[in-house]
Design goal:
The complex is a heterotrimer.
Chain A (H helix, E strand, L loop, with lengths): L4 E2 L7 H18 L7 H25 L7 E11 L2 E9 L1 H24 L6 H20 L3 H19 L6 H32 L4 H7 L5 H19 L6 H5 L5 H10 L4 H8 L1 H6 L1 H24 L3 H21 L5 H28 L17 H15 L5 H16 L1 H26 L16 H24 L2 H9 L10 H25 L11 H7 L4 H46 L7 H24 L1
Parallel strand pairs in A: 1-2
Antiparallel strand pairs in A: 2-3
Helix pairs in contact in A: 1-2, 1-4, 2-3, 2-4, 3-4, 3-10, 3-15, 3-19, 4-5, 5-6, 6-8, 8-11, 8-13, 10-15, 11-14, 13-14, 13-18, 13-22, 14-15, 14-17, 14-18, 15-16, 15-17, 15-19, 15-20, 16-18, 16-19, 17-18, 17-19, 18-21
Chain B lengths: L3 H20 L3 H26 L3 H31 L13
Chain C lengths: L9 H23 L3 H21 L3 H26 L14 H24 L8 H6 L3 H11 L2 H22 L10 H10 L23 E2 L5 E2 L5 H5 L8 H12 L4
The chains are: A mainly alpha, B mainly alpha, C mainly alpha.
């Protein structure tokens, strides 16, 4: 385990990375309407400053040698109870810095985009405050040096997600979606909480250093339990099966929220957790196998759902679910895959943000309509949006030499290194990715215009299109640069470990087959949706289409397994409270009342009756005295 | 006979007094029964004083007499007052403190 | 000093039996009498017998006090109140409260049996010390009692003296009659009499038409009936009104209405 270097120079400002957006959030949310005019700009400034600081720290870190790149900064001793200690302390190493950059840079671009997107919203100051709060919590999550502090950030991003999904709280669907997201996240949080407790019970500490150092000594059962609990937490936050139902509903929030939280950053926190805890997962084999299985299931679920949804944001959400499934699968593969999980996470953060912001730009031009069946031929009126969107689209399906070609194919190679089954499943999912993304692009930007009568699509203002352009450039070149210019594998290796296993066939074979599958999928989608007429009313479809439109009945399963039993048991409890508990209380009151009603008849008012009872009492007392004496 | 027969006599007088309190309806006769019970207790005290060989029992009996006298004074005054309004000396008459 | 006295001399035995029987008789007489005044007199009998028993128990002071205070003062007080309340209320022996008589008899008899059995068996073998030593210790029974009252029982003495004062005040307050209106003067009484229903003049005193002047003989009205108001109510209540014979009525008739033909 590498030692933590002291925080000197630019690294003494690590705490500032979190403090700046947190201060921004506080000023905006506490300041109230007074900050309406300049609030959004302050929010952009704080996140941008954090981004600049992050870049400075990266440059400085690149100057260190590989063993000296883990910096630790302790602010103060936070929890110190008995044998348990957790400090307000940060650990900036190769893994956290890439996350810091992703969060702050993409975050800044989305903040700028929101200036345009939320320009007409009366509550936009609150929106920026919540966004800053989110950035602060996410940074805390990735910078924490112990699981307890990470949990604080974990909860913080959950809170920010709730606030932002339900931002338009006058819409009942938005409020319900926010509640659903929070509740399902909570189930995952239970997993993380239990894992922390188990860690403390096993290792005596929850700080990364001691835990990972002592992981080898714990029993395999304990490590498997911890691993499964961490997996549960990751499922909740990253919308993996079985806790995936909230992600599609979360699209009720404004599009910048969907881009930042539900594509680029928050949903990747689960992957961060697994990769950060790689020591535990490497030691607990069965937990890692569970991770792979969950990842594969979600990879396919997301792809199938995304193929049938007519709502552009929900289709993209399905895509997010699927891509995170890729990352989780890679993380479950062990040291052969951790690096590629993070690699894909980074590229996905950029291109998915670009795709979502592009969709937002389309919605902005189409009066907030999300039905793709009402889009069509938008490339003629929204050139920049269409251009950036198509670049990101080509990236996600894995066309070389764009980013995801490198990251996704690395995952497919790692899958084949482990087992051909996993590899083939990942490859076929890539083909399906090509299908549904092409369907999306064809229905939106190509084909015939199916606009509604009051729709006047227009290009978005510069404040929205410039971030799109920057993200498209990033999506195009990030992958290349992380392989050839600065190698992501050697960068992350000290933290995650890297294992090279020889592939059965040479790597270009896999890349070619994958590309072929992608092109076949794209061609099928193009034929169905660009060449042919797209009906404005959704056709009935096959049973698979209908199931996919219904999100593979995930909500119904949740309803039957969880919601209805809870509802029934709470109804039974209410009945028990009314009849049983209240019955006892009321019954005892009635009993006392009835008893007193009987007893008051003894008050006859006659002094002689009272005298009789007195004499009776005296007889009893004398009797008792004699019995005691006599016996 | 021995000095304990005085105790037996006291017990008998006490019980007769108790019956008198419970059975008679005229308030003044009830009062007299109460006086009878007090006298029975006095007799017991005096007999015990003789048995114990000191005069404490007699002193207590003396004080019982004092208290009984005071009690008779007040009790009869009450009966007179009640009689003035109700024109009846029966103790079954004032039975309003009932359910 | 003297030994424990368990034997009593025959004089005391005789006194005990006589007084005990009389006391119990008095008690039973009180409980069972129909008239209240009779009950009072029976009680007085009991009290005097108890005073004699006190004397037999070497308590001369207490015996005298019993006669003076109880029989003299308390019972007289009872008799005075009986006069105020009225002797005409004769007791009815119908029990109005259900089960009271049965329960009372059972409980009291039970109490008596318990006490007699218990106390009797407990005390039968106990030797009596006798009060010779105690009575001569201070030079007499009275002195001995005084010694105890004013040393050991001083607080009780003070308290009971306060109690007596309170009782006297209480009796005065309770028995006091407030006048709501000014006392009617003689003129008011006369006016009321003239305006009222009854006879204006004096009512015939007993003996106006009297052939007899005894208090218990009723006066005869002109129509030959007897005048109720001419015999005092207590006498009437006791049923001691003397009936008149025919000769008296005839004579009155003749006086008032002239000789019959």
């Amino acid at each position: 385990m590498t030692e933590l270097m002291p925080a000197e120079g630019v690294f003494s400002l690590i705490w500032l990375l979190i403090a700046l957006p947190l201060a921004g959030a506080t000023v905006l949310l506490v300041g109230g309407r007074r900050t309406n005019a300049w609030g959004p700009y302050l929010a952009i400034l704080t996140v941008a400053t954090s981004a600049v600081l992050g870049i400075a720290m990266l440059v400085s870190m690149m100057g260190h040698s590989a063993e000296e790149r883990s910096i630790g900064q302790t602010l103060y001793s936070w929890v110190f109870v008995g044998g348990f200690q957790a400090d307000m302390a940060f650990q900036l190493d190769q893994l956290s810095i890439v996350f810091v950059l992703l969060i702050t840079i993409v975050g800044t671009l989305i903040h700028v985009y929101s200036l345009g997107y939320m320009a007409h919203d009366a509550n936009k100051r609150k929106f920026f405050g919540y966004l800053n709060l989110f950035v602060a919590a996410m940074l805390l999550l990735v910078l924490a040096n112990n699981y307890l502090l990470m949990y604080v950030g974990w909860e913080g991003v959950g809170l920010a997600s709730y606030l932002l999904i339900g931002f338009w709280l006058h819409k009942p669907s938005a409020a319900a979606a926010a509640k659903k997201a929070f509740v399902i996240n909570r189930i995952g949080d239970v997993g993380l909480g239990l894992a922390i407790m188990l860690m403390f019970a096993t290792f005596g500490s929850v700080t990364f250093g001691p835990v990972f150092g002592a992981a080898g000594e714990a029993s395999e059962g304990t490590l498997t339990a911890i691993g499964l609990l961490l997996l549960l937490a990751a499922c909740g936050k990253s919308a993996q099966f079985p806790l995936q139902a909230w992600l599609l509903d979360a699209m009720e929030g404004p599009t910048p929220v969907s881009a930042l939280i539900h594509a680029a950053t928050m949903v990747t926190a689960g992957v961060y957790l697994i990769v950060r805890s790689n020591v535990i997962f490497t030691a607990a084999e069965w937990a890692a196998v569970a991770v792979i299985i969950i990842g594969l299931i979600t990879m396919w679920m997301g792809a199938v759902i995304g193929s049938a949804k007519d709502d552009v944001k929900k289709a993209l959400a399905g895509s997010t679910m699927s891509q995170i499934g890729y990352m989780v699968t890679a993380a479950g593969l062990g040291p052969i895959g951790y690096v590629f999980a993070i690699f894909h996470l980074l590229t996905h953060g950029v291109f998915k943000a670009g795709l979502f912001l592009g969709a937002g730009s389309v919605m902005h031009g189409m009066n907030d309509n999300v039905n793709m069946r009402r889009f069509g031929a938008l490339r003629t009126v929204m050139a920049i949006t269409a251009g950036t969107f198509i670049v990101c689209y080509l990236t996600i399906i894995g066309i070389p030499p764009l980013s995801a070609f490198f990251s996704k194919d690395d995952i497919i190679h790692a899958s084949f290194e482990r087992s051909p089954v996993i590899g083939i499943l990942a490859m076929l999912a890539a083909g399906l990715t090509g299908f549904y993304m092409t369907r999306l692009v064809a229905m939106t930007f190509f084909g015939k215009a199916r606009w509604e009568d009051d729709a006047h699509p227009h290009e978005s203002p510069k404040v929205m299109t410039i971030p799109l352009v920057i993200l498209a450039i990033g999506a195009a070149f990030l992958g290349m640069s992380l392989v050839y210019w600065g190698n992501i594998e050697t960068w992350l290796e000290p933290v995650t470990g890297l294992q090279e296993v020889p592939l059965p066939l040479p790597s270009w074979v896999y890349e070619t087959v994958t590309l072929a599958l992608v092109l076949i999928g794209a061609a099928i989608a193009w034929t169905m949706y660009a060449r042919r007429e797209v009906p404005v009313e959704a056709p009935h479809g096959s049973w698979l289409t209908r199931a996919a439109r219904n999100e593979l009945y995930g909500n119904e399963v949740n309803d039957a397994l969880v919601v209805r039993p809870v509802y029934h048991s709470s109804r039974w409890l209410v009945w028990f409270d009314n009849k049983g508990v209240d019955g006892i209380v009321n019954g005892s009151a009635a009993f006392v009342g009835g008893l007193s009603g009987r007893l008051r008849r003894y008050q006859t008012g006659f002094a002689r009756s009272y005298a009789l009872s007195m004499v009776g009492g005296a007889v009893l007392v004398v009797l008792a005295l004699f019995l005691v004496r006599v016996s | 006979m021995n000095p304990s027969s005085y105790i037996v006599l006291s017990a008998i007088l006490f019980s007769i007094g108790a019956i008198g309190v419970l059975v008679r309806r005229n308030a003044i006769i009830v009062f007299m029964s109460v006086e009878l019970m007090l006298n029975a207790a006095n007799l017991a005290f005096v007999a015990f004083a003789r048995m114990n060989g000191n005069l404490d029992g007699q002193v207590v009996a003396f004080f019982v007499m004092v208290v009984a006298a005071a009690e008779v004074v007040v009790g009869l005054a009450i009966i007179v007052t009640i009689f003035r309004t109700r024109r009846s000396a029966s103790i079954d008459e004032p039975n309003l403190l009932k359910y | 000093m003297s030994e424990a006295v368990t034997d009593v001399n025959t004089g005391e035995v005789v006194v005990f039996w006589v007084c005990a029987v009389l006391a119990v008789a008095g008690a039973l007489g009180m409980v069972l009498s129909r008239k209240a005044v009779h009950s009072a007199l029976w009680v007085a009998l009991t009290m005097i017998n108890l005073a004699v028993l006190y004397l037999a128990n070497s308590a001369p002071f207490l015996g005298m006090v019993q006669v003076v205070v109880y029989t003299g003062a308390v019972m007289m007080l009872f008799l005075f109140v009986l006069m105020v309340v009225g002797v005409d209320a004769s007791a009815s022996f119908i029990e109005t409260i259900k089960g009271q008589r049965l329960a009372a008899t059972l409980l009291s008899v039970g109490l008596a049996i318990l006490l007699i059995w218990g106390l009797g068996s407990a005390l039968s073998g106990v030797p009596a010390q006798g009060l010779d030593a105690a009575n001569t210790a201070d030079g007499g029974n009275v002195q001995g009692i005084a010694h105890l009252i004013f040393t050991k029982y001083l607080l009780v003495f003070e308290l009971t003296s306060g109690l007596l004062i309170t009782a006297a005040m209480g009796a005065m307050v309770l028995a006091h009659r407030d006048r709501w209106k000014p006392a009617p003067s003689q003129r008011d009484l006369a006016v009321a009499r003239v305006l009222g229903d009854g006879p204006v003049g004096n009512l015939p005193n007993p003996g106006v038409y009297a052939r007899h002047n005894a208090v218990d003989t009723p006066a005869i009205l002109p129509d030959g009936s007897t005048s109720d108001v001419s015999v005092p109510a207590p006498v009437r209540a006791r049923g001691d009104e003397r009936p008149l014979d025919r000769v008296d009525i005839e004579q009155v008739h003749q006086i008032t209405e002239g000789p019959t033909e």
